[in-house]
Amino acid sequence: MGFASGPVTFRRFFIDGPMATAAGDVVAAVKKCAFGRYGQRSADGVETGWISPEHLFDANIVAEKIVFDRFVHCQMRLDRTAAPSSLIRSYIRMEEAAAIDAGGKDRLTRDERHRAKEAAMARAEAEGKKGMHRRIAAYPVLIDLRQKTVYFGSLSPTALDAFILLFRDTFDCGVEPADAERIGFRIMDAAGDARSVEDAEPFHLVSPRMVEGDNGFDVNDRTFFGREFLTWLWYRTDVAEGLFEAGRDRVAAAIVKSMHLDCDFRVTGSDTIRADGPGGTPEARAALTTGKQPTRAGLILGGRSGEYALMFDGPRFTVSSLKLPDPSEGDRHDQLRERFEQVTEVAGLLDLLFGLFLGRRASSDWADELGRMKLWAAGGKAASGAARPAARKPRVNDRAVASADGESELHDSGLNNDGVILRLHEQTT
């Protein structure tokens, strides 16, 4: 979905290297690589380039269409020439039938069938060069120039790869995916404790001896922080009311609608649970006892602008089906800018909660808290005297305080009790 209307899906990227931030320079760079001007069609029949948010055929890039104060909003158009498989099969059958008629045979040899297939493929390729069989798609892109962050409006691997190449060629700098590992490093490096990420190994709520298999640990991959974050969030919303303290501010969160769990040890498979409160179902509790942890979940977050409902992928740190509050009254330009600020606020709230988790994980109290989590996972009391109320939606007065541009703004020194810097975008960009 697009950033301008409807539900929003995005994968976040950090800009890697110097990039022009003046609106005029950015517009000029985008215009230079607009669709139809950027290179030639690749060998696999793919052609990309920038277009305006107006429609698929608007390659007229001007500031009035794409610049919204600190944001640049445009689209990547991706054309792919590929004949439908059903058409290819039909052409093959036609070539085979023609060969049978010409040879007066009942059956074709292997070589004759091969030649029929080659003729069919050549026909489809020739039609493609004439402009037939073109599939056109557009993917929204939101660039936050101030925070050097890009939001790409699709999770398609093919589209992501094309976007990374186009962005690099447009701005002469790269982007790196903002997954749980990279965000974790940035947060803890800003807190002066990057070693807590470098030296970390994944935790498990059941003993590996109880489930025969590997421990799912790759020394070069620390996206496991994402699943651990969702597990911790589930635990905290289960044993408390889903309120998270950050300095003098509070953030409210709830897990709702859906939860997908994967086995830590790659043995017991995965479960997807759909319910209003998936974390409280017997199926979810049983999944914990068999070595599973959540990797995706539906969330509701309380923010400055209201409630945000979304699907969140912990390891990849991607957001899908994000429902934004209705914008305030005003002209279209102001409403779009407000929506873009809401998108960045959601990213900031996720970073804030993730920072709280990482700070807790790196604290001297973590061993005790992990012990309580294991007891909770086994079905015992998570903490002495702690009740486990059902998940609830955040209340309006539970919202995190945020500044007018959508960034979280904490009023103390920027550190919580665990020493984690919580000025969100300063720590992750």
- Structural class category: alpha+beta
Beta strand count:
13
Number of helices: 12
- The outline comes out as globular
One letter per element, helices H and strands E, the order comes to: EHEHEEHHEEHEHHHEEEHEEEHHH
Q: Tell me the fraction of residues in β-strands, as a range.
A: 15-25%
Task: State Rg.
Answer: 26 Å
Question: Share of helix among residues?
Answer: 25-40%
Query: pLDDT under 50 segments (min length 5)?
Result: 383-429
Number of domains: 3
Give a quick account of the main beta sheet: strands, pairing sense, barrel closure: 13 strands, antiparallel
- How widely separated are the two ends? 25 Å
Structure description:
With 429 residues, this protein is of the alpha+beta class. Helix 3 (85-103) crosses helix 4 (110-129) and helix 6 (180-190) packs across helix 10 (332-361). The protein folds into 3 domains: 8-78 and 137-176, no CATH class; 85-129; 180-428, no CATH class. Strand 8 and strand 9 (249-263) form a beta hairpin. The chain is built from 12 helices and 13 strands. Strands 1, 2, 3, 4, 5, 6, 7, 8, 9, 10, 11, 12 and 13 form a 13-stranded antiparallel β-sheet that branches.
